[in-house]
Design brief:
alpha/beta, Rossmann fold, 6-stranded mixed sheet, 11 strands, 29% helix
Amino acid sequence: MSDTPAIEMTDVRFSYNGDPVLVDVNVSVPPLDLAGIVGPNGGGKTTLLKLMMGLLQPDSGNVRVFGRRPREVAQRIGYVPQGFSYDRRMPITALDVVMMGRLGKGAPFGPWARDARVSAQEALDRVGAGALAHRLFSEASAGQLQRVLIARALATEPEILVLDEPTSSLDAAAEREIYSILRELNERMTIVLVTHDLGFVSSVVKSVLCVNRHVKRHPTTELGEITGELLEELYGSDLRLVRHDQSDQTGYCRD
């Protein structure tokens, strides 16, 4: 395996309209890491994710993915957004949605179209959603929808999978299923995800990127038990523990 970091950020600063969001970011994500990005609302989690993917450019500093600028390796990055907007009246199937991940990889007709369909079906099979291929996407449950969106990202054949709060709308059972899928995928690719449920995923992720203007990476082997006291040390004194009624899991938020 190459020693080149999957993602590396050096002296990165970013601001919106002059208001600093991220400052002095120096962080490295090794290949085959499964990293959870956590932090308070407004702390810069999604901004960090967008910088990694090249959707935003830093005010200063450098962002590298496999040693290159993110836009130069965009096809090596699969992205699962927090939401997926579409007209529910459109009669698109789950397979149609996954095939969207193949756009830009060839002509939309002829042999490529057949190859894309095969690749899309294989991606659905990898996330345990092969039976959904010809069902209307609008009929999918929240958990099934998320599997299809992960399959769409996998259809790009990525080496890094980036997810923005992939379980935010799921119940506890569906949440566990998604994390099980990610753990299996992590055997072959680097995964970075934004989450508010650190208490739930601490047994899944390999490292945690703590974001609150600054960014610190902690392997979970260093963190030990995730406690309110530990998070207070990482984020500040105004954190509080909250219980999520649906999942019966403990999470953390900022007053």
